[in-house]
Design brief:
The chain has helices spanning 14-27, 89-102, and strands spanning 2-11, 30-35, 39-44, 56-62, 71-79, 108-114. By secondary structure, it is of the alpha+beta class.
């Protein structure tokens, strides 16, 4: 199973975080399948790649440590594909999501920590 992790700290109000995060994931061709407010799961829309390569993104929003200065989000991007090559499909999608989060205009990126 391919699995990539990253943490982001962004400056945005809690009221706008959820909506903006959903928009970011949808712009990367993901459907939101589970949302509890502090946990979000999105799955890539089928049709472009084999079923085993479909990517799932899990986002944990650390609201307990949220301040006016920043909110931390932990991302896990994974699929069922064996990562036999460094540049596999899941890795490509990981960078797509990472770039979309980093370049979003609705928040200010304060910190990125790749796992």
């Amino acid at each position: 199973m391919a699995r990539y992790t990253c943490s982001f700290t962004v400056a945005v109000s809690l009221d706008h975080l959820q909506k903006t995060l959903i928009e970011v994931l949808q712009s990367c061709n993901f459907d939101i399948i589970y949302d509890t407010g502090d946990y979000l799961m999105a799955r890539e829309k089928p049709g472009q790649v084999a079923f085993a390569k479909l990517v799932t993104v899990e986002v944990l929003i650390d609201k307990s440590m949220a301040t006016n200065e920043g909110i931390r989000m932990n991302f896990v991007v994974k699929n069922e594909e064996l990562p036999l090559q460094v540049e596999n499909y899941c890795h490509k999608m990981f960078y797509l999501v990472k770039d979309a989060v980093a370049q979003n205009q609705h928040w200010q990126l304060l910190e990125t920590v790749a796992g």
